[in-house]
Design brief:
- With 293 residues, the protein is α/β, with parallel strands linked by helices.
- It contains ten helices and ten strands.
- Strands 1-2-4-3-5-6-9-10 form an eight-stranded mixed sheet, with helices on both faces. A two-stranded antiparallel sheet has the order 7-8.
- Strand 1 and strand 2 form a beta hairpin.
- Helix 5 crosses helix 7.
- The protein starts with 6 loop residues before the first strand and ends in an 8-residue tail after the last helix.
């Protein structure tokens, strides 16, 4: 792998309730001169421990974007990573405000198109933000997007059920117990994360198929984990068909490195990086270009 000559700037961005930890990847200089960015990209990370498991792949892709001339801002949302606040205090509305802040901050410093890039639940957040973007957006880049907030939270809650089943102390838990506790207004602990009912219920209500306007108004670049490049999972295929019937510009590719966001080992996913480069080649090679049709 060629070593990137792009520069990396870590900093804390002042925000409501504290600070947000950010990493800014800047384009490499050209012939010793400062390089003007071709655009900006804001990265939205996935949920809970998936953030930590995916940091390596996200960093590699951010460097690749910076090498292509883009400024990339990675932000740890409120209560996540190295940002202020506890995960128990995280709320969907606060995360939306964090994204608005990140977009406005980057737009003030970078000319050219702005892209939202989200992974897993971060992709669903990007789709939600795209309904009423704080600044003009040129495109969305979605890595393995979660399309149903409720389905995503059900998968997350199963981590708690599995942990209880494997516990040596014999404590078992009925499948619906966690949701019952949340419905009663109580926080619960899942895989080391304390989750408030306000956050989980808000995510439950987010569904890509119900977001209005239903079809994103900007081009969408979608990378899906699949062993077959010709097949999408049924929920994704239905949504793609719906969006295309409404005139959405969709560009879709598959990768099969593995589910790096849940892997026990840190992965680098060269196939995903290569597929992203190929799928996004039109705007990576032509500054400011937005494809049509």
């Amino acid at each position: 792998m060629t070593r990137s000559s792009a520069s990396l700037l870590p900093f804390f961005l002042p925000a409501s309730g504290g600070q947000r930890y950010c990493l800014l990847h800047l384009p490499a200089p050209e012939s010793g001169q400062k390089r003007s960015p071709r655009g900006g990209i804001v990265y939205l990370h996935p949920f809970a421990e998936e953030l930590n498991k995916s940091r390596r792949v996200a960093a590699l892709q951010a460097r690749a974007f910076a090498d292509a001339g883009y400024s990339v801002l990675q932000i740890d949302l409120h209560g996540c990573g190295d940002s202020s606040g506890d995960f128990a205090d995280a709320r969907w509305a606060i995360w939306r405000n964090d994204v608005h802040l990140a977009c406005a901050w980057l737009q003030q410093r970078v000319s050219g198109p702005l892209t939202l890039w989200g992974l897993r639940l971060g992709a669903l957040l990007a789709l939600d933000i795209a309904r009423h973007p704080p600044v003009p957006l040129s495109r969305l880049l979605l890595w393995q997007p979660e399309l149903s907030g409720r389905r995503s939270m059900d998968q997350f809650l199963r981590l708690r059920l599995a942990a209880r089943m494997l516990a040596d102390n014999g404590q078992k838990e009925a499948p619906g117990y966690a949701r019952a506790q949340l419905a009663a207004g109580q926080n619960i602990e899942v895989a080391g994360y304390t989750v408030a009912p306000e956050l989980l219920h808000a995510i439950d209500d987010i569904d890509a198929a119900r977001l209005a306007p239903t079809a994103p108004a900007v081009p969408v670049y979608w990378l899906e984990y699949s062993a077959s490049t010709a097949t999408l999972p049924a929920p994704a295929a239905r949504l793609v068909q719906q969006w295309r019937s409404e005139g959405a510009q969709l560009h879709i590719a598959a990768f099969d490195d593995g589910a790096f966001w849940s892997s026990a080992e840190i992965m680098e996913c060269p196939q995903l990086l290569r597929a992203t480069r190929q799928l996004c080649g039109d705007w990576l090679t032509e500054p400011g270009s937005v494809p049509h049709g």
